[in-house]
Amino acid sequence: MSEALSNPRLVTVLPIVEGDNRENTDNRAQAQRDPTPLAHPQHLAYAALALHGKLASVPPSIVRIFVAAVLLLSLASCTGEDPPPTYPEKKDTEVKEPPLTSPEEKNSPSVFFEEEGSPFTYISLGDSLAVGVGASDPRKRGYTPLYRDLLEREMGREVRLIALGVSGETTESFVNDPNSQLTRAERALKDNPGAVITLSLGANDLLAEAGSTAAEREEALAQYAQNLDHILKTLKNASTPRPQITMLALYNPAPGSFTDEWAGRLNAQVRAVAEENGASVAAGDEAFRGREAEYAHYARDPYDIHPTDEGYEALARAFFEAS
Questions:
Q1: Which residues pair with 245 in a beta bridge?
Q2: Helices 214-236, 259-276: inter-axial angle, 10-degree rounding
Q3: Rounded to two decimals, what is the model's pTM?
Q4: Helix or strand or coil: residue 141?
Q5: For residue 12, what are the β-bridge partners?
Q6: Could you report the per-residue pLDDT of 289-301, keeping only the tens digit for each?
Q7: For residue range 95-138, what is the model confidence (pLDDT) as tens digits?
Q8: What angle do CA 238, 133, 93 make, to 5 degrees?
Q9: Which of 28, 139, 207, 319 is the most buried (most CB within 10 A)?
Q10: What is the DSSP letter of 150?
Q11: Residue ranges covered by each domain of the chain
């Protein structure tokens, strides 16, 4: 048994890289100054001229007092700078892009959205596979941005991405962590009813049982199915219309280990629970079968079970074909 499998945290708890790298657009309105203030020297001068001819009958001493007052007020208004320009309220139409976060900041969601308009919404949920760990550029080459791009080409319209994946997530942490990913997904669905959802959960549940007995793995597998059923039921009831959920069937993360058998058994649970809850299944296991050396880093680095760029492309296609 490799050190990676006996200590799954080495391969599952990795830096979070969430979101995408799309170019931002800046639609700031051009600044426009307020009309010239009424106390501006120009207005005072015009007022003085308007009175010209009307002061002829006024004693010279009174005229001198009036003119002095006008000049003093003019000078006072010139001692400071002109009032600062005001700008129309800026409506935020920029795609938000958060900074990279660490595993300790796992409960800070990465949400990218546009307030104006109502683009189609895609919510990516799950573990490090949803984050894109292992890709050369997770913001562009993880399955989440690749699948979003496929949706945009298919639909011919913008797809708004809400990426909530957390590296190292299990079904238990997905449900029970403070400000859990499930809670944040419910909030996102409330604001975006009927969104498309992808969900990848199970690899960390499986690898946590690397040193367990067969009986302990059986128990963990039953708990996984129970947790997954709760997750899918919560998600599908979180909005009206209901979201379109696609669950990932796990590829074999560590060929030649106990995962040869148990990844298949976990996927049997994935398919059964998904069918019961009306969710689709992306066949990641079938996409990787026979191509594990090309699609995953494990063949070259036993400390890394994550997909290569080619592997993430295969997963994005699997999600697209299933949706």
A1: 197
A2: 30
A3: 0.66
A4: helix
A5: none
A6: 999 999 999 999 9
A7: 333 333 333 333 333 333 334 446 799 999 999 999 999 999 99
A8: 55
A9: 319
A10: H
A11: 41-78, 102-322
